[in-house]
Amino acid sequence: MELFERFYEYSRAHEDWDLDEFALLILNLTVALIFSIGFQWRRLKKLTLEREAQRQRAEKNARHDPLTGLMNRRAFSSALEQIADKASNADERGIAMIDLDRFKPVNDLHGHAAGDLTLQTVARRLREEVGPDNVLARLGGDEFAVIFESSADVLKIERVVRRILHTMEDAVEYEDNQIFISCSIGLVKWNTATSCAEALRRADKALYMAKNEGRGRFAWYDAELDRQSHERAEIEAELREAIIKSDIEPWFQPIIEIESNKLIGFEILARWNHKTRGQIPPDVFIAIAEDSGQIGSLGHSILRRACMLATQWDSALSISFNVSPYQFHDPKLVDQIKEILKESEFDARRLTIEITESSVIHDFNVARAKLDALKDLGVAVALDDFGTGYSSLASLRQLPFDRIKIDRSFVTNIAAEPQNQKIVTGIMALANGLELDVTAEGIESSEDLGYLQSLNCSLGQGFLFEKAVPADQVSWFLESKWGDLRVDPIEEGFEPPEHLRDAG
To answer: Is the pTM of this model over 0.70?
Structure first.
């Protein structure tokens, strides 16, 4: 008030200065400034709230799957680490890895909208079955995961898992269609003694085991199976290098003319003497080569080296090479064999390609064309493991084989197996009627040999004559023991060690 009175007296003393208009201007500016500050403050507050909401949404999106609203992989890993930080080694938790079976056809047949609806339905069903006390997440695609509460024992976990398997079988309604799916579940018990990453790896391994057992089921992690799987993965990784370095070598088992004991050739067998693992059984590394797509490279390497070696032997000796179904279906097979024969200058008439019935059973027309192409090169073809397939007679009737090989399961100890005697007698009658040569595998005793001689079986191989041997021993035998191309049976009572039985 005192300031106002002074201003009033001052303005009366200087009326000619128009101070009242100036004062009114100041007052208006002050009021405007106050309103402006208030407006800006409200605007700033609104922006701050919007930014906080955006931050929260971004954080939620960063930690949650936008389609199902479940935790994503990042949030799931974070939750697992937080549990690990708070828990002791004595605390155990169950972890489930869930993967949908037959989900890809949903997208292919009904479209991605149907796939999204299916995933949302799966998420809802999982929420209902898992409950709020357990951690549930969608890791990506059609894969989900659960961390069970610490109080959940094995029986409780399995009850929940069985309910999940059951509810997943219910149809998903989409427009006028019903979509049916199922799931496989891998389970593992986990405590802080095991890292989070290892826990998830084990759960994933258990899921893989469940799928291998037939899908639509659950499986607990098995340490021994995991060890075997890990060893198999290591061998697979080492196999590629072994093929490149030619560490896998061709070995040779004699094929004998039974009537005269005359050596007529060799079957080529692959052997791998690993620098640290020792001899790896062929059924192990060949199966791995087939599964990993390396069987073509392996077969090409073994056949090429065998042909190179065989060119140094008596030209009367032939070699037989078994081609796996995976190799036989390779469109380049005939051209590769032709290239090997040309490079090694090996006479095609000295080579027999052996194939199993599983190589040809799916399409006889395609198989015939390939076998004809091989025969055009001059190569003979044999049906291996005869008698173990489902339609061997159809194979012989429709395909141009030169020889059949009787599986060792029918030959070994045949003198004491009346049923096997009937089977082999029937095979020999069939082969004679079709004018086919016959090779009997697995001759291990003089009784086996005598029975085959009584049937006039032409060719045989087995431990009674010799096991498979490396190339340098073949050369030595040909210069000494087999100099006249005669291979006499090993003395009576010979019983090869188990590892040699596998090798031969």
So the answer is: no
